[in-house]
Amino acid sequence: MPKKERDAPPTTADKVEVTEHHGGRPLDASRDVALRDAALALLAEIGYDRLTIESVAARAHASKTTIYRRWSGKAELIVDALNSLKESRPVPDTGSLRGDLEAIAQGSTSIDSRFDTQLMIGLITALARDAELRQVFRERFIDPHKESLRQVFERAVIRGEVAEDRNLDLLVSLLPALAIHHLLTSGEIPEAQFAEQVVNDVILPLATAPTGCPTSEQDKRLKSAGLPSPF
Questions:
Q1: Percent of the chain topping pLDDT 90
Q2: Are the CB atoms for 92 and 103 separated by under 8 Å?
Q3: pTM for this structure?
Q4: Structural domains present in the chain
């Protein structure tokens, strides 16, 4: 296994400059944005393990000292950069459950969605050993998608398309969980066709099935997806 590239610790000169900065001129906020953008771009391109403070400085045309004035190291920089990402996009409201889910599936191919997925790929290897990154990953990538889906299903319940006793926690977790599974097992970003297949073959049949035991066809769909029955 190749050795992981590590950040070089700040030099004595770096530390002196950082220390001398305190109490001096305010930091240029525009540099913060450029440094965060550079960090996110590299995270998407080469992943967390290969990303270094040196590479971020080079991409942003800045010095390491400029970065160390703002963040203590790579982990703090990445957490801050992820937290600076814009809020989640509007939830579709087409008037039907199928229409809303299809809009979400189509939206998975947008530039913003694909960049988010590339960031997720870049973070995967670091999540097991960094609790703060795991928390940011969940808050910025998983929870917003689940919240959007929950709104879609809650409206469907109000319209009578989904039974009130349906397990919404399971339904909202299916698309994110299967998308991540596809990503990890294939190494490829899920396309809209994959999301549409999950919607049509798994989520809609489960969401709209009559109350009671699922049909044998629904059982087959559950088993093929490796999922337990919610009924």
A1: 46
A2: yes
A3: 0.70
A4: 12-83 (1.10.357.10), 97-225 (1.10.357.10)
